[in-house]
Design goal:
The chain is built from three helices and no strands. The longest helix is centred in the last third of the chain and has 35 residues.
Length: 105
């Protein structure tokens, strides 16, 4: 049964999702929605770390340190995957919290 509170919650979630001012930073954010400046700062930090990994991997390839370059490229691949996993974990926790609420709420 669809209740008024569920409709209000869905409307609020869709409004939050539509207000993304930084859609490119969501890839580097550990949270599914960027809602505060702290979330923006964290996303920018992870984006800079990723750029640094890409640049250093190119530099190590240029200087022919192939093993070190391979390790850095692995870290560069692992970083966005790990951030995506953390975003998914936050969404799962949010869904579980909603399911634990009694229907009267």
């Amino acid at each position: 049964m669809i209740t008024r509170s569920k409709l209000v919650e869905q409307l609020r979630d869709s409004q939050i999702r539509s207000q993304h001012k930084y859609p490119a930073l969501i890839v580097f954010s550990p949270k599914p929605n960027i809602t505060s400046r702290a979330d923006v700062v964290v996303a920018i930090f992870w984006a800079l770390v990723f750029i640094m990994l890409v640049v250093t991997s190119y530099m190590t390839l240029y200087f022919r340190h192939f093993r070190l370059s391979f390790v850095i490229i692995c870290f560069g691949i692992f970083l966005p995957i790990r951030l995506r996993i953390s975003r998914h974990a936050v969404l799962v926790k949010k869904r579980e919290r909603r399911l634990l609420l009694p229907l009267s709420m």
